[in-house]
Write a structure and sequence with these properties.
- There is one protein chain.
- By secondary structure, the protein is mainly alpha-helical.
- The chain has a single domain (35-193), classed as Up-down Bundle (de novo design (two linked rop proteins)), CATH 1.20.1440.
- The chain has helices at 3-12, 33-89, 96-111, 116-135, 147-182, 184-193.
- The longest helix has 57 residues, at 33-89.
Length: 203
């Protein structure tokens, strides 16, 4: 190869220069900032909304429990009135100790706090005293030969049925509140706002 041809070949040969590595990244590898912001905004709005809904439902459940207990308490007071009339009618015809016990049990239940805990404590002794009074057999085979006593017994039976119905409804409401307190989100909200469980009523 002549020097002229060698120089021509060198000129024509492609020259490859080193290049710096590219700092650009693939757009698909960059997080979508707008979507991330949107998710944060949605969560920021969703959490208070869920909290408010859970709190509202807890308040409603607690109100239902209180309202249904008020119905039970109304029927219990109706029974206290009838028991007082029953005790007055037995003063001259029955064992004085039985009448005294009936009156004492009625007064204890009437003076107790108006809540299910107190009712579960004071109502069973009163019911037992009522049953003993109704089962008594004074002269004249009371109460079956006396219209007044028979009417009182019928009224007590009716009130007992109403108490059982109201108590069953109340216990259902307590169960609904308990389920909300046991749920994850509602339970957390309940603990933060001081919601407590309600006591069932012993029927």
């Amino acid at each position: 190869m002549t020097p002229w041809r060698a120089a021509t070949w060198i000129v024509r040969a492609p020259v490859t220069l080193p290049t710096a590595p590219s700092t650009r990244t693939d757009p698909t590898d960059v997080p979508d900032v707008q979507n991330a912001v949107a998710v944060v905004v949605v969560l920021a709005a969703l959490v208070p909304g869920v909290w408010w809904v859970s709190h509202t439902r807890l308040v409603d459940a607690r109100t239902d429990v209180d309202d249904s207990w008020a119905d039970v308490d109304t029927e219990l007071h109706r029974r206290y009135t009838i028991v007082e009339q029953l005790a007055d009618s037995l003063h001259d015809t029955t064992d004085p100790e039985l009448v005294a016990e009936l009156t004492r049990r009625r007064d204890d239940a009437l003076d107790a706090p108006r809540n299910p805990e107190a009712a579960n404590e004071f109502e069973p002794p009163l019911v037992a005293a009522i049953d003993r009074a109704l089962a008594a057999r004074p002269a004249g085979a009371w109460p079956f030969d006396d219209e007044n006593h028979a009417a009182l017994a019928d009224r007590l039976a009716t009130v007992d049925d109403r108490i059982a119905l109201a108590g069953s409804f109340y216990n259902t409401r307590v169960g609904q509140l308990d389920r909300r307190l046991d749920a994850f989100v509602s339970g957390f909200v309940a603990r933060r706002h001081g919601f407590d469980r309600a006591q069932c009523f012993g029927l």
